[in-house]
Amino acid sequence: MPNPLNFRPMPETTPGAAASTPAPQLTVVPRERLAAARVLVVGDVMLDRYWFGDVNRISPEAPVPVVLVQRQEDRLGGAANVARNAVALGAQAGLLCVVGHDEPGERIVQLLNESGVKPYLERDPALLTTIKLRVLSRQQQLLRVDFENSPAHEVLLAGLARFDELLPSHDVILMSDYAKGGLTHVTQMISKANAAGKPVLVDPKGDDWERYRGATLITPNRAELREVVGQWKSEEDLLARVTKLRTDLEFKALLLTRSEEGMTLFSDDGVLHASAVAREVYDVSGAGDTVIATLAAMLGAGLTLVEAVGLANRAAGIVVGKLGTATVDYDELFH
């Protein structure tokens, strides 16, 4: 069976440990190679809405600050932000998702059209499009308010049929799960992608990873992995738990994102640790989106997984220096 991740042997590490190794030399990818990469993002989309204002007094009704809102900004969130990140790097990205027939749904359509992402939207008139509303003052988040419900079964089946149509024309499949119901049929989608020889990257949610069985690469953070394998006591213990998980669920590789500790790649070729490269951490929201989008774009451009991880780690270090859900463009990554 051909290896969909085009693995190259990894640097040796201390046996049984995710010891830090020299990071691979960053590969500069020509723009034309990235422009040929075709990524299909499937998952839960949301509208990230920001209200910016000043706080000059405390409410007489309750001990809470009064925010005088002066500016509003909308950004693509969830799977839509993942697709936007892939496009910002220069790749082609299609987005298969469900949105409602409401104001935030129309706003998502508008932002997608402006972003360069190719939308493949199923519309559910009964769905309240997910909104994450953040209230900020002087660049500090004071409050977040969420609005959401789950899409209808019929709309999700229509999305599965659309997936079958889109699969042949994309190089890499990326599943962005935010537990909003958009990936109800993720198991069937992974099986179909595997049968077509397409690598499947998954950004997971929750503790039921059986539904991701057979994924090529899964990219949890520490809290998400801990929820599934339990608390590890050492790097050797972590390796044992991840190895069992990968064997049981047939994951070819697992990339653990570890915030200020960087990221660690586990595969049959060994363990590779990449130290964090952030110059300044300003906001970590959306950093996972940037990581998996960079991985997908680079794999679609023909890089090895080790090369893609090095670039994803660099992209994460850039995006955490920005406010809110943000992207990294080609020039930022390679210059």
Automatic annotation (TrEMBL):
- A Gene Ontology MF term for this entry? heptose 7-phosphate kinase activity
User: Where is each Carbohydrate kinase PfkB domain found?
Assistant: 38-327
**Could you say which EC number(s) this protein's record lists?**
2.7.1.167
Arranged from A to Z, the UniProt key words for this protein are: Kinase, Transferase
InterPro entries registered for this protein in UniProt? PfkB_dom, RfaE_dom_I, Ribokinase-like
State a GO cellular component annotated for this protein.
cytosol
Residue ranges, annotated region (Disordered): 1-24
Keyword set includes Transferase: yes
Q: Which Pfam families match?
A: PfkB
Quote the biased-composition stretches of kind Low complexity, using this chain's numbering: 11-24
Recorded superkingdom: Bacteria
Protein's UniProt name: D-beta-D-heptose 7-phosphate kinase
What gene name is given for the protein in this entry?
Answer: rfaE
